[in-house]
Write a structure and sequence with these properties.
- With about 170 residues, this protein is α+β, with helices and mostly antiparallel strands.
- It has one domain: 3-Layer(aba) Sandwich (Aminopeptidase), CATH 3.40.630.30.
- The chain contains six helices and seven strands.
- Strands 1-2-3-4-5-7-6 form a seven-stranded mixed beta sheet, with helices on both faces.
- The longest helix has 18 residues.
- It is globular, with a radius of gyration of 16 Å.
């Protein structure tokens, strides 16, 4: 990408060539911080992953997107309903980490406009040490949470809409 600010688009994972997703999820730099990503990733695993993410969309009307910058795949993430909470995740290709704040701001704007999402949670691996961005956006520690056999640091961020803020409410 050039020095210009790339145009972002949130797409469905089905729009991304499977090879792009496979290369991304096989990157050892990424895998080091994803405790649930075990074993080798091949075409069958990539197809099953996309199918599982599409099932969340069918069930909840919302799920994980593919993130595109100037039409190029840079990662995936979005909102996945875990019980009564909407968990936000962001998994970027290492060379595109610099887009994380911009993508997250756009996703949180989406959450603030969606009445189903009064707050979001973030589950981060304990190996994640740099939490400054979460603190700057106002996320609060909510302890630790076990998920699928792994322990994560949990954060919560209220996502009041502009109308809630004008009316004095906070969720």
């Amino acid at each position: 990408m050039t020095g210009a600010v790339p145009a972002l688009r949130f797409a469905r994972l089905t729009e991304v060539p499977l090879g792009d997703l496979l290369a991304h999820m096989s990157d050892p730099r990424l895998r080091a911080h994803m405790p649930l990503l075990t074993g080798n990733w091949g075409e069958a695993e990539a197809r099953a992953f996309v199918a599982a993410k599409e099932a969340w969309w069918a069930r909840d009307g919302l799920g994980h997107w593919a993130f595109l910058a100037d039409g190029q795949y840079v990662g995936w993430g979005g909102f996945q309903k875990e019980g009564e909470e909407w968990d936000y995740g962001l998994v970027l290709r290492p060379q595109d980490f610099g887009l994380g704040q911009r993508i997250t701001r756009a996703a949180l704007d989406f959450a603030r406009a969606d009445p189903r999402i009064p707050f979001v949670t973030f589950l981060l691996p304990p190996s994640r040490r740099n939490l400054g961005a979460l603190h700057r956006m106002g996320a609060q520690s909510a302890g630790r949470q076990d998920h699928s056999g792994a322990t994560f640091l949990k954060y919560r961020l209220d996502t009041p809409s502009a109308n809630d803020l004008q009316q004095g409410g906070n969720s």
